[in-house]
């Protein structure tokens, strides 16, 4: 049993590089809106999504987009002019944020989608029916969410972190990176610092539950890597979080 | 129609003037105003550049277009419409018929003119600025500008001539036509640091880090740009301070610190930088030497402290953003962080992005009012009076001053996407400088 665990642990550790890169953002895929009748000088709208959002080097992801009131659409980098809606495969060699710019008589609009590319980690063994550490982590470790411009832990956030602490107690070999995120409404500089406070708040709560601080790194993305890019409260709420990533 | 051009030196303190002219408005929260307020600007005619050789590219026209734009955007001149000009453009003083320029409808006071020659490889522009109301006096400026026979050099020479003219007509305050703007662009896919001329021409990508680069800040001698970068280290990617050398066109090393390190700014002597670090857990302000040595903490309040900047004139005060009392607000402290004082606003909201004017008297900032709009304001630090510069035109943030104290650059979403704009420091003459991709966080070079 012991030596079996260690062998599995070896496989898990081999996957950690992949996991650390692959657990990034999940974009909200917007439903295709019905095409409105053409009206003069109406501000264009545009959405862009990538599926999957994380690939290994050499694999492809599919970009899908929709737009309204746009005559000219352009996806950079590397795709160029495209139809008002559609999809196309892309093969980025490094993590890439694609930007679509929709231009019409009423102005222009943009949307972005990110594809994370991880280096050539070995693919998961297909015969292994045991859940991988990545899967266990994904199933058991939940992010903590925050109120606007706040780094105080809500009751929901404490409940999520308490479960995270149980997992970390069960798997003493696991180290985590806690990444603070913010919604788009604050300034870049303020959000970088606020995200750090959110990550620190989560870490300090876990320390109070007996988890060693040495197992946790904190960092902040501010508003630079949103989980969702709509401009509404449900999306903003998704972006105000301390996000847990398996580290090595 | 005679004007004494000495009177235009009064325009140096354009904003101090604007603010002092509105001392009676203290009961109001905010006010807006226009340029000049009754002070007449010098009327300058800028006839076409005379070509004295045959050019394979339209360099004399490029030169004239750039010169025209520079002088028009200086904020201190009134350019005479070309439709009022005499038919013959002068190429040198002997060809200048002064009375034809002072007469109606041109009514010019000064004429800026000259001729360009080329040998196919190089160009030379002989430039003159003459007071046509004093035809017997020698030109106020006569100078030969030399460069390569390229579009880029024609632009560069026009900027030099414009700055020389503005230096004379503003009473010695240098022009800004040769300054640059650093900014963040995602044009190439990732947010990288770019630099462009002050008028939006010549956009060039500096960094190729392929992660996220933010908040560029020129050193006072414009030889380096400090910025926020994201660098992976032992599996964790975190915000760090990065340093780019304009002299050697590469990144130079800067120490790495734990957690998030962001929003660097320079001391007026270029020897120190202040930035936000979560080295101790909470994001606080730290000061280090320009090479990262002698790091020490200068703020000690629970909450965020960030976006710090020293008064560029005196170096004796620091302005920064903190949420220690609730919403993000501006604080003023001594240079070492002591005696912090909150700058209270007359209304609720979220106050960020402070930028000192070069004379240290004004702070530009952005303010998110309860309505959700972000707009750019000026505060006169001594009187605490406010001036609103943008209104009802998208989200406007991150002002940065030109070294002449008469212009600001900022980011705005008013065109439908996030782009870099500049304007006069009274809020007029807004100009869009970027159009491709998303662009943000402009910082005007100090020279």
Question: Would you summarize the structure shown here?
Answer:
The complex is a heterodimer of chains A (248) and B (447). Chain A contains five helices and twelve strands.
Describe this structure in words.
Chain A is α+β, with helices and mostly antiparallel strands and 248 residues long. Chain A has two domains: 45-118, Immunoglobulin-like; 141-247, 60s Ribosomal Protein L30, Chain: A. Helix content of chain A is 29%, strand content 30%. Chain A is built from five helices and twelve strands. Chain A has helices spanning 2-22, 133-140, 155-170, 188-208, 233-239; strands at 45-51, 54-56, 61-68, 72-76, 80-82, 86-90, 96-104, 107-118, 144-145, 175-181, 216-222, 241-247. In chain A, the strands form three sheets. In chain A, strands 2-8-7-4-5 form a five-stranded mixed β-sheet. In chain A, strand 7 (96-104) and strand 8 form a beta hairpin. The longest helix of chain A is centred in the N-terminal third of the chain and has 21 residues, at 2-22. The radius of gyration of chain A is 20 Å and the shape is globular. Chain B is mostly beta strands and 447 residues long. Chain B has two domains: 41-169, Rossmann fold (3-Layer(aba) Sandwich); 180-444, 6 Propeller (Neuraminidase), CATH 2.120.10.30. Helix content of chain B is 10%, strand content 38%. In chain B, strands 1, 2, 3, 4, 5 and 6 form a six-stranded mixed β-sheet that branches. A four-stranded antiparallel β-sheet of chain B has the order 9-8-7-30, with no helix packed on it. Chain B has a four-stranded antiparallel β-sheet with strand order 10-11-12-13, with no helix packed on it. Chain B is elongated. Chain B starts with 13 loop residues before the first helix and ends with a strand. The chains are: A alpha+beta (248), B mainly beta (447). At the A-B interface, strand 7, strand 8, helix 4 and strand 11 of A face strand 12, strand 18 and strand 22 of B.
